TrEMBL record:
<feature type="transmembrane region" description="Helical">
    <location>
        <begin position="96"/>
        <end position="125"/>
    </location>
</feature>
<keyword id="KW-1003">Cell membrane</keyword>
<feature type="transmembrane region" description="Helical">
    <location>
        <begin position="378"/>
        <end position="401"/>
    </location>
</feature>
<dbReference type="Pfam" id="PF02447">
    <property type="entry name" value="GntP_permease"/>
</dbReference>
<feature type="transmembrane region" description="Helical">
    <location>
        <begin position="174"/>
        <end position="193"/>
    </location>
</feature>
<feature type="transmembrane region" description="Helical">
    <location>
        <begin position="223"/>
        <end position="246"/>
    </location>
</feature>
<keyword id="KW-0812">Transmembrane</keyword>
<feature type="transmembrane region" description="Helical">
    <location>
        <begin position="338"/>
        <end position="366"/>
    </location>
</feature>
<comment type="similarity">
    <text>Belongs to the GntP permease family.</text>
</comment>
<dbReference type="GO" id="GO:0015128">
    <property type="term" value="F:gluconate transmembrane transporter activity"/>
</dbReference>
<feature type="transmembrane region" description="Helical">
    <location>
        <begin position="421"/>
        <end position="438"/>
    </location>
</feature>
<protein>
    <submittedName>
        <fullName>Gluconate transporter</fullName>
    </submittedName>
</protein>
<feature type="transmembrane region" description="Helical">
    <location>
        <begin position="252"/>
        <end position="278"/>
    </location>
</feature>
<feature type="transmembrane region" description="Helical">
    <location>
        <begin position="30"/>
        <end position="50"/>
    </location>
</feature>
<feature type="transmembrane region" description="Helical">
    <location>
        <begin position="299"/>
        <end position="318"/>
    </location>
</feature>
<dbReference type="InterPro" id="IPR003474">
    <property type="entry name" value="Glcn_transporter"/>
</dbReference>
<feature type="transmembrane region" description="Helical">
    <location>
        <begin position="137"/>
        <end position="154"/>
    </location>
</feature>
Length: 439
């Protein structure tokens, strides 16, 4: 009975977001409240349970997401992202132009939110398309595949960060495993798949393509400084995760644990970028802080949605429905990674939001992870891969791609939707391969 109640609540959550267009944060709170009532929690305990779930979730990921957003915003406004893009394109030249765009999308996609990276890089795609007289979709798919993979697989993006928190994964290892899986995924779903769109037609160019977000009035940072600053969180998390694995020095391991805490790494990265991409580039502190203020405003709703998912998770734990789920799912003859991927994919198709799909899935399947002694890092990536499945008309990114590239609905399904589905399917395939190699 408790599983039926939870299923009904999740369906109601999907309907609120997809059908009634209710804000996902409010929808999560309403669903958590109803789930608590129907699962028999005493009325006087419901509010404290929701507050605890919200607080624990936000306490674990808010600093990381906010700091990461600020770094991404500064990378754009300082011109660092544009410097990275131009340098990589100059290296690859016409012959390997799609590879250059793909690498650019992956590098820039790590510190930037998907929508910001999209708006920043689409003008670059169109500029290259005009210069080389090539199809915009043909050039765009490899870069946008890279952005999508970074959004779904790699910290410090909100979904991987929240999933890592819920599933108690090691963020550094999630990042390392995510990069390992991402590389073959984008080579196939981006570089190889885009070859079929050499002749796809776009109707006309938009004035919106001349988007320019650089506000830096001083000099632009060098490529080396831009790359080091933007990817410092990646370097920091990777090094502090790997050193304890190859060294038995207790002091070094202790230092890595302290510095390697994601919140500390992100704070150090923010301070570094404030100097290297701000003060060093002749920008005033007030100008840099204005960028940070805007970044925090942009990410506020995403943080709240993640907190709302924490409320639902806490209701499940307190009510004991998680134990029932474990007993039921253990009877299903399907690998837990594939089950996680499938559930996230189904919710993604219904809701349209990759972040919401990942959070719903993780909340439900958390007990399964504990019961089966699975690798939580690969479990995070399984959910992340599923949450990217089949982007269609209920996903804002679908319409962004269609309108920016100005192609027909049919061509959008053939290119964008199939590319996103390929990323999802290839992701879970490579997760199983990596799992076999590691374990």
């Amino acid at each position: 009975m408790s599983i039926l109640i939870l299923t009904a609540c999740i369906i109601f959550l999907i309907l609120q977001i997809a059908w009634f267009k209710i804000n996902p944060f409010i929808a999560f709170i309403i669903t958590s409240l109803l789930a608590a009532l129907f699962l028999g929690l005493p009325i006087e305990t419901i509010s404290p349970v929701l507050q605890k779930g919200l607080g624990e979730m936000l306490g674990s990921i808010t600093l990381i997401i906010v700091f990461g957003t600020c770094i991404g915003k500064l990378a754009v406004s300082s011109g660092a992202a544009k410097v990275i893009a131009k340098t990589v394109m100059n290296w690859t030249g016409r012959k390997y132009v799609r590879l250059g765009l793909m690498i650019t999308g992956f590098i820039i996609g790590i510190p930037l939110f998907y929508s910001v990276g999209f708006v920043l890089l689409v003008p670059l795609i169109f500029s290259v398309a005009h210069q080389f007289k090539l199809s915009k979709v043909y050039l765009g798919i490899p870069m946008l595949a890279s952005l999508s993979v970074a959004h779904g697989f790699l910290p410090p993006h909100p979904s991987p960060m929240a999933l890592s928190s819920i599933l108690k994964a090691d963020i550094g290892l999630v990042l390392i495993y995510g990069i390992i899986i991402a590389i073959p995924t984008i080579l196939i779903a981006g570089l190889w798949f885009s070859t079929r769109f050499k002749n796809i037609k776009t109707e006309s160019d938009h004035e919106i393509l001349n988007v320019e977000e650089i506000t830096n009035e001083g000099k632009l940072p060098s490529f080396g400084l831009s790359l080091f600053s933007a990817l410092f969180p990646v370097f920091g998390l990777t090094i502090t995760s790997l050193l304890p694995l190859i060294s038995n020095n207790a002091k070094l391991i202790s230092i890595c644990k302290i510095i390697g805490d994601p919140s500390i790494i992100m704070l150090l990265s923010l301070l570094l970028c404030t100097y290297t991409l701000g003060i060093k580039m002749n920008r005033s502190m007030s100008s840099v802080m204005d960028d940070y203020t805007q970044a925090i405003k942009d990410v506020a709703l995403i943080v709240l949605i993640v907190g709302g998912a924490g409320c639902l998770k806490e209701v499940m734990i307190v009510s004991g429905v998680n134990e029932t789920i474990v007993a039921t799912l253990n009877q299903v003859n399907i690998h837990p990674f594939l089950l996680a991927w499938s559930m996230a994919a189904i919710i993604r198709v219904c809701v349209g939001s990759a972040t919401a799909a990942g959070l719903m899935t993780a909340s439900v399947l958390l007990p399964l992870l504990k019961a089966n002694d699975l690798d939580p890092n690969l479990f995070v990536l399984s959910v992340g891969a599923g949450s990217l499945m089949c982007s269609h008309v209920n996903d804002p990114s679908f319409w962004m791609f269609k309108e920016y590239f100005n192609i027909s609905l049919k061509d959008t399904f053939k290119s964008w939707t199939v590319m996103e589905s390929l990323v999802s399917v290839l992701g879970i395939v490579f997760i199983f391969i990596l799992n076999a190699l590691i374990h």
